[in-house]
């Protein structure tokens, strides 16, 4: 993939807000990929739960301090819409609905031919193709109130929101930039974080299925610790047997999802051909080893030495979604 120099006069900040952490990245350039600045702040438990802001006042105070410490005040920012609220769905619409009319058509069909698990959505769409009298599209939807809440939070803390994305697309964008993706593959992407697991299936470069799963336990079971390289890592303070038992359930769920894709979505004609594992869960290496053993598939990871900062230090893999967000519209 040919990338060009990312040399805007005013660089855009890329911010990911999860239940347990804030992360930001600013790029210096994209060819080769070099990170100008990055940072993270681990949140105390209870401020955000399943993507929903619970304690806005405390979260806002922390974010304001991060904005000041990171020196990003009054900068434009891209953000990630929390995974638990995202709906991805293939739809067929009349062929004569033009590209600039699709959003209006979808709003008219809400509640009749199109059903979503929330009211007042915001949409994004991709046209997949046409056949006979139908046009196939890929719909991305999220609750408007959630998008507005995060956008207003950023504005209140001195940032200027300019774009939003979803985490699977951001991670895939980075994966594609490294020339690791293949148009013919059927990829199962797993984002394994400390409190949740995001699953997304890609056909070629298009996400066609998403699921967000909360992991057992609470974020209070994790403590932060400094590594020898000065980075912050997470340490699980409870019985490791509990979380390993939870991973056994996760593998069973992955097996069900792959069977659902093969036999329901693809009518037995196609199955998953590759797995990509990412995320910030410290047990990720153990999960990788088990995935290799359990599934007769190539399990891929992104090497931590693929991207460096201006100081020539490798970018920690926990920043890969944020980095993919930085590549949006480059």
UniProtKB/TrEMBL annotation:
Pfam families linked to this entry: PilM_2
Lineage: Bacteria, Bacillati, Bacillota, Bacilli, Bacillales
InterPro entries linked: FtsA/MreB (IPR050696), PilM (IPR005883)
Name by which UniProt lists this protein: Pilus assembly protein PilM
